[in-house]
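Known limitations

Structure tokens in this collection are predictions and should be treated as such. Users comparing against experimental data should check residue numbering before alignment. To illustrate the layout, the record for Peptidoglycan binding-like domain-containing protein is reproduced below. The input appears on top and the generated tokens appear beneath it.
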Amino acid sequence: MLPYHTLPGGIPGVERPGPNSIVELLQRVLQREGFYGGPVNGGFTAATVAAVRNFQAARGLTADGIVGPATWNALPAETLQGIPVIREGSSGGAVALLQRCLRRQGYDPGPINGVFGPETTAALKRYQQTGAPEIIVDGICGAQIWPLMG
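Generated tokens:
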């Protein structure tokens, strides 16, 4: 598995509260599992952190509110099916999130502009090459890569 770094009180790549599709997915799953009753709005709010901590405690994990590998792995398997798949030609917030994550881990994706171009593809492939043998080096960021980003 690739090195995994998560910011305290956050989930992979989420630097501050605000709308984020990964957080929205997390909120939906926690809601479905009975841990979250707030709005599904993509904001990593205090209510979301509390739901994460409750989920972690119920699963025997360290209840720190950080969604790291152990927490991702404790979520139902179908959870990762809702994670956005992005590749060269994609654009938007998920791409900017990936670019920030790659930069933070030492892989230069070019400008952090939300546009998945050749520089981002090359950086992602370099990142994928440093991973476990089961990581496919394809320049695509989806369910295989998002949980490893941080």
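For this record: Confidence is low (pLDDT under 50) at residues 1-18. Residues 46-58 form the longest helix (13 residues). Please report discrepancies through the issue tracker.
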